[in-house]
Amino acid sequence: MGTNIRTDGYWYGYSTKYVFTGDNYKLEIIDNGNLQHEISSNDKSTPTRSKVSTYNIDQSKTNQIKKGDHIYVYSGPSDLYGLMAEGTITKIESSNDGGKDRQVTFTFVESEDLSKNTFKANFNGVSTVTHKSKTKGTTTKLNMTFKSGERASTIIKKIAKASGINIYHMALVKNKTYKRGYTVSNEPYKAIVKIAKDCQSQIYQRRGKLVIDDYATDNPYSEHIYFELGSGLLSEPSTYDKQGTKQCFIIECFDDPRVQAGSSIQINSRTVSGLHRVQSVKHVHQDGQYTMEVVIYE
After folding, report:
1. 92, pLDDT greater than 90
2. Nearest in space to 189 (alpha carbons), one of 87, 88, 117
3. In b/e form, how buried is each residue of 224-233, taking b as 16+ CB within 10 angstroms?
4. If I label 146, which of 23, 63, 216, 286 is the partner at 20 to 30 A Cα–Cα?
5. How many helices (H) and strands (E) are present in the chain, helices listed first?
6. Which of 87-101, 125-139, 198-212 is least confident?
7. What is the pLDDT of residue 147?
8. Beta-carbon neighbour count of residue 179 at 10 Å?
9. Rounded to an integer, what distance in angstroms lies between the CA atom of residue 191 and that of residue 184?
């Protein structure tokens, strides 16, 4: 069966909405010319940081929002409008608090910081290790130990389950066998990242979901979005930095919320053509304009 390339998308009639949620509130702010953002997504193991700004919003509303609260960004043209990103707020900055042009900028990290996850002490396979230090006395830590000959896919799944890390999709370039076994200290996400890299695979988060990607099989999102000059593409692609051994290209397009790290997009241009995977994308809404800057692998 051939790849189904999606040509739907009319890049007009844009709208944006930010939804903030905390322990005791839910706040929706709809764009009336008073919202701006720069939303990033890439295929690195460290979650991306993005910013949204609000202008002239009642201070009693924005004062509800605290660090650690969650934000959902919905944006796009009328026929493609949807969830562009979600994450945890890490920083709040305000200016002109006493004036009519009050601006509040929220920095958030994609999804959540999985490095904070630890093992569950009562989970099957998790053991307690006591360590004596001359300076700190006795400390107790948790770890997981795997027998010799265990496969990477099994280790990743067990680590994820024991630490409450949900993996949306996993495809490994190679499923490495650890002949001497494997021991994981109480840093489960760090271990999953290392094992994924041992298996020559990309690990990243997008729209609140963790993905381990082999970049060889078809991507798990069924996107295959079509771009050419006159149909979303604003200019000819240009050469960009290499990522490892892979040459990359950068393209400018009308904003499309479907495009995220790992997306497959079909390019038809003089410089680049064919189906390509997305390394990173930056969605920008500023001064009434909606554009995106996309880096693709050759």
Report:
1. yes
2. 117
3. bbbbeeeebb
4. 216
5. 3, 22
6. 125-139
7. 93
8. 9
9. 7
The whole-number pLDDT of residue 1 equals: 36
The domain ranges of the chain are 15-111+218-297, 115-206
Token couple for 298: 């050759």
Residue labelled with tokens 């021991």: 183
pLDDT-based confidence at 223, cuts 50/70/90? confident
Residue type, 47: P
pLDDT at 137 exceeding the cut of 90: no
Bridge-based pairing of strands 177-178 and 126-133 is unpaired
pTM: 0.88
Complete edge-to-edge strand list for the sheet that includes strand 167-170: 167-170, 209-213, 202-206
What is 15-111+218-297's CATH number? 2.30.300.10
Q: Which residues contact 103 (CB under 8 A, 6 or more apart)?
A: 53, 54, 55, 94, 95, 96
Indicate if the alpha-carbon torsion angle 204, 223, 215, 220 is positive or negative.
positive
The DSSP call for residue 255 is -
Q: Are 188 and 203 in contact, with CB atoms under 8 Å apart?
A: no
Helix, strand or coil for residue 225? strand
pLDDT in tens, 103-127: 999 999 998 889 889 998 888 888 8
Categorize the per-residue pLDDT at 203 as very low, low, confident or very high, splitting at 50, 70 and 90.
very high
Q: Which two tokens stand for residue 291?
A: 């554009």
**Residue 57: what residue type?**
I
Tokens of 208: 């609140």
